[in-house]
Design brief:
This protein has a domain at 32-265: 3-Layer(aba) Sandwich (Aspartate Aminotransferase, domain 2), CATH 3.40.640.10. Helices cover 30% and strands 12% of the residues. It is built from 11 helices and 13 strands. It has helices at 32-44, 51-64, 75-85, 107-110, 155-165, 216-226, 257-287, 327-336, 367-370, 384-388, 404-419; strands spanning 68-72, 93-97, 114-118, 140-146, 169-172, 180-181, 184-185, 192-196, 209-213, 294-296, 314-317, 342-343, 393-395. Helix 5 links the parallel strand 4 and strand 5. The longest helix is centred in the middle third of the chain and has 31 residues, at 257-287.
């Protein structure tokens, strides 16, 4: 035990976190400018028009550094359109990390395709570049790369694999708007990128999604898929022109202009806000440097890669340095100190029954293999890093403002629990079979 620190709050000691955090965790930031932009749409009755949305797309494309941006109702719709835009269809396969939100993979089902999951790299928590190539078959139509929890995936080797096989990359940037990989903006490395802009994301516009690309054909296929009013005489692709004025995908994907109006305001403020978020979370990790059992999940603060707006910030847990204490018991003690600590991260998708036994569309067999030429389901034990990472990770407070006193108190809570770890061994129930849920 650390003799200089009081007993854990879990055992009756004073809490490490005391006082009003103010606006430290408030998100999204909604100002009078957001309100005015939304009210203008409301008063004009322009909710289903496209003038504000097209302005937002132009500004977003310029900010992202892409030629084209196309707005959708949500990130899931944007990812579905991205898959369609690169040609994913019946019997095709996409490769996707198992550790991600379901929308990175599940839209493939709607196109008659399926997913082959890859494992993750334990340091980045993103798709493991070394676990992709052996999963490629003649049916592989796309590789989905998720910049998970804001951390850039290791893109150079992934791009090399994709180039060797002529397979497009879809970047899911839902966790990493504006982040950098070796100086390059995330969402500009693959052929197409898609992302969620819902109200909990780092770039929050209420609800919405965005597809970005430099490829005119991909952009036009996205328009054709779910934007029937814009699928018109401006379309240049000979393969699409005969089908204009009706949505090829049979859906209406346009963004509500309340969201695009808010999006224009949020985009103007985003880079400054993301910089403050990074400063706050880096300060938290700096305060915990060298604490046993705790490692930051981040890129070097002084390098040319960044954590963007640091969505769903978390850390690596090293139980061996804390006497084998479970992350569940550790998190319980941190919570008692008045801070937040979520044990684990996403559950691996490949173990969910939806990807193994569910017949969604009445094929008479699980949808995962309905149009496949083999049984490509992946049982327990097939992706060991993804399956075991929950016991080695945790979520930290989501600091949105650089408030030194608040950040210091929360860091002190984590340090206090780590330095009292031996007192928590009695009563440690261990980790449950599954940590966290399906929703990050």
């Amino acid at each position: 035990m650390c003799a200089t620190m009081s007993p854990l709050a879990l055992f009756g000691g004073p809490r490490a976190v005391d006082g009003d955090p103010g606006d430290t965790f408030s998100w999204p930031i909604v100002t009078e400018n957001d309100e005015a932009a939304v009210l203008d749409v409301l008063r004009r009755g322009a909710m289903s028009d496209t003038d504000v949305t097209e302005a937002f797309e132009t500004e977003f494309a310029a900010w992202q550094g892409r030629d084209y941006a196309l707005a959708f109702t949500n990130g899931t719709a944007a990812l579905l359109a991205a898959m369609f835009s690169v040609g994913v269809g019946v019997g095709d396969e996409i490769i996707c990390p198992s550790l991600t939100y379901w929308a990175s993979a599940l839209p493939a089902f709607s196109l008659g395709a399926t997913v082959v999951f890859a494992d993750i790299a334990p340091d980045t928590l993103c798709i493991d570049p070394d676990d992709i190539e052996h999963r490629i078959t003649g049916r592989t139509k796309a590789i989905v790369v998720v910049h998970y929890m804001g951390h850039p995936a290791d893109m150079d080797p992934i791009l090399a694999v994709a180039a060797r096989h002529g397979i497009p990359i879809i970047e899911d940037v839902s966790h990493a708007h504006g982040g950098l990989y070796k100086g390059r903006v995330l969402g500009t490395l693959g052929g197409v990128a898609a992302m969620s802009l819902m109200s909990g994301k780092s770039l929050p516009i209420g609800e919405g999604g965005m597809l970005v690309t430099d490829d005119r054909e991909i952009y036009e296929r996205g328009v054709a898929f779910g934007h029937y009013r814009r699928f018109d005489g401006t379309i240049q692709s000979p393969a699409l022109r005969d089908y204009r004025y009706l949505p090829i995908g049979g859906i209406k994907g346009r963004m509500n202009q309340f969201s695009s109006a808010m999006g224009r305001v949020q985009l103007r403020e985003y880079d400054d806000r993301a910089t403050e978020v990074r400063a706050a979370i880096n300060a938290f990790w700096d305060a915990l440097e060298g604490v046993p059992g705790l490692r930051a999940h981040r890129v070097s603060p002084t390098g040319d890669s960044t954590m963007a707006g640091w969505y769903a910030a978390g850390g690596h847990y090293v139980p061996a340095e804390l006497g084998g204490l479970s992350v569940t018991r550790f998190a319980e003690a941190v919570q008692a100190e008045g801070s937040s600590c979520r044990p684990g991260i996403n559950r691996p998708l490949h173990l969910h029954p939806l990807f193994n036994t569910c017949d969604v569309y009445g094929h008479g067999k699980p949808t995962r293999i309905a149009n496949a030429n083999r049984d490509l389901r992946q049982p327990h034990g097939s992706l060991p890093v993804s399956e075991g990472i929950g016991a080695l990770t945790y979520g930290i407070p989501q600091f949105k403002r650089y408030r030194v006193e608040v950040i210091s108190q929360h860091a002190a809570a984590y340090r206090k629990v780590a330095e009292h770890a031996e007192t928590l061994m009695d009563g440690d129930p261990g980790n449950p079979a599954s940590l966290c849920g399906w929703g990050i």
